[in-house]
Amino acid sequence: MKKSLLTSCAALTALTFVAAAGPAHAAASHAQRPTAAAKRAGIQRLGDAYAGWEHHDSKTGADSGALVRPLSSANATLGIDVAAYQGNVDWSSQYRSGVRWAYTKATEGNYYTNPYFAQQYDGSYRAGIVRGAYHFANPAGSSAVNQAAYFVAHGGGWSKDGKTLPGMLDIEYNPYGATCYGLSQSAMTSWIRSFLTEYRRKTGRDAVIYTTADWWQTCTGNTTAFNQTNPLWIARYSSSPGTLPGRWPYYTMWQYTSSPIDHDWFNGDLSRVKALANG
């Protein structure tokens, strides 16, 4: 009996330590696991996903790292997006290279916060870069309202300081299972709407939507429900952003490469970046 009691206490202590030691990631017992494609893109556990991960696996398109200039705009502003896998970012160097805006992954689902968020989000701000935060959606994990609230509570808020962009909803390929997270096209559209509505209720801003044309067509039926309210951030690793999904009249951001870091163009000069920040 005494041995059994000691064993139970030791097990309880071990569980308590695990819970305290790894708050940034979900518990290892979570049902969702990275797919083979996600593992090739560096996603080893729940929480590791990042904007454009599927492109990192496939390396499709013109992923050379060259600064491809948007064909549709004479004025464009260079930006980057980062997540935990980049670690500490040298923001002064990024500024010298021409980067003037950046988004940092803050959260995923309702179970993960980026352990490098403070260095990446605050560091870009201090370097004079207009910054924003993004949320990697996992509609299979919890409700949209729950995830929007989690995002806002963990770095995804907004302030009218001229240097903070509205939050971004990263809704794309599922690194943990079925492409559309087990939802029908109508259910996915409703999930996105609920997230955006809750985000606006909490911050007063319409969130940016990051996606790909293929995913949007497949998982929402190419819905046009958000093309008049939410800025589009299109992901396409090529020499042009291509045909836009959801009949958006234009893109606001375009992620065009992941080499040597995720590079993006803002469809306008720096004054337009700041205008979006100011709301």
From TrEMBL:
Keywords: Antimicrobial, Bacteriolytic enzyme, Disulfide bond, Glycosidase, Hydrolase, Secreted, Signal. One of its GO terms (biological process) is killing of cells of another organism. Residues 1-26 form the signal peptide. It is found in: Secreted. Belongs to the glycosyl hydrolase 25 family. One of its GO terms (molecular function) is lysozyme activity. Its EC number is 3.2.1.17. It catalyses: Hydrolysis of (1->4)-beta-linkages between N-acetylmuramic acid and N-acetyl-D-glucosamine residues in a peptidoglycan and between N-acetyl-D-glucosamine residues in chitodextrins. The keyword Disulfide bond applies. This enzyme has both lysozyme (acetylmuramidase) and diacetylmuramidase activities. CDD domains: GH25_CH-type. Its main location: secreted. InterPro entries: GH, Glyco_hydro_25, Glyco_hydro_fam25_subgr. GO terms for cellular component: extracellular region. PANTHER family: LYSOZYME (PTHR34135). This is lysozyme. Transmembrane segments: none annotated.
